[in-house]
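Cross-check.
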Amino acid sequence: MIKPEQKRLDRSIHTGVDQTNIRINLAAETGNPAQFARQMPEQRHHGSKRLDRSAEQRQGGREDVLLGECQFKRLSSSSFLNPARLYRLLKLMPVLVLFGCGENIYDEIELMPSPTVYAESTFNPLPAKIDGELQAQSKLFYVTDRGKAGPGDKPAYYNNRRGQLSRAGTASVRLSPSVQNWEQFIDITMRGNRDRKYLLNVDKITEIGVLPYSVSQLYPDAPSAAAMEKAGREFARQIDRQLALSSNKDIHIYVHGYNVDFEYSTLVARELEHFLGYQGAFVAYNWAATPNRLAYFKDQETATATRRNLRSLIEFLSANTEADRINIIGYSAGSRLAFEVTYQIALLNRSGGGPRLGDVILISSDLDRSFVGHALADGILKAVDQLSIYTSGTDAALGMSSLFFGRDRLGQSWSEKGDVWPELEEALVALDKLEIIDVTDAEESSVGNGHSFFRTSPWASSDIFITLLTPYRAQERGLIREGGKAIWTFPPDYPDRLSSIGTR
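Predicted model, tokenized:
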């Protein structure tokens, strides 16, 4: 689970839970505006709805935006399109991209708002009480091809350079401030009854070893084949042990976006694992993104370079564990990686067989729409149980991406601009395994720059978790769409529609 643990001063691994002093950490925000801005890799958010709105005000109302350690005046939409200002900005961008402004440390996040489905209904994937079995079931796994941190690196565990080899391990996460008992823990995290911020920090990393599918022949410091085979067996054994303790037998893989370090993406993964009720086994796939807002194009290339490693991980888990399905959650630049790997798997297994892919979820995706169309024509849906694409009409980050590429991105709203003509609409509606969900009308989906709605919006997060935990289709999950239309949306009475979901 989001690991409740005993309060401690050092960063040692959690070995048990003291029911009288539970701690779980998922933090994001601090009181210092400059520090808070540096903490916003995948966009920070406000706390629970019951908190004051100061966090949102600092995010949305500040005049300055920090890019790494560099500061720029925020431009309004009208001033940004001023030709003279745009020309000066574009002249400056190559210098900034080449030289950057240093790498940041994102080692703390704030617990995301409780998903509406938990706060407003009886649906709750967590057990009524904590015990030793739940503790064993709550392990968070990671696989990374980052380099191991050395004496000269700022990061504590893995650095921000490509390490090439795929290393597996487990992570322990601390919640602060401490919680007194399991009931209070449920009340705070699932029901949203909070009167303050709750933060998450990585407490301990335990590496299992380098996995055997790594291309070790190219790297002189790689372990022996025997050592990698041993690490692979242990990794699979621990995954299977976790699956045996869960009623859900799926493996969930979270693929993060750009501008993050190892700790930040690990914390988001732990947060997602918690709100999934520690059902199945959860793996944070931690590719070597750079914690710098100006490293977008560098990280795009890195994401492309790690496709084999992610595909090999999926193939390894499918062949060596008892998992029923493998679900992939791709966010932002990570959605590009998740989709391209799914596409590779579909092409490699056209005759059948291959990894057991379940739900593939793309959030705030910066993919090119025509590329996705080509993949659909090539039969990518045959390789998955369902492909869910979450879009938004208020995603400023994708607006900037579309400016650079000259084309709208997959994660931008389709319905607003008349992008879906009748023939295409008819074809999309006919694809039973495809769901396109527009979150523009979902509560709090536009917080900050609107890019991290899967964490800021309790409506959007609810739909994602229901998708992963149940067989419900969009209409059963409370979404609506007009007759003959391809895009699903959130109705104003969405919370009321969820009230009975726990009793179905």
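Confidence is low (pLDDT under 50) at residues 1-80, 95-100. The radius of gyration is 22 Å. Passed to J.P. for a second look.
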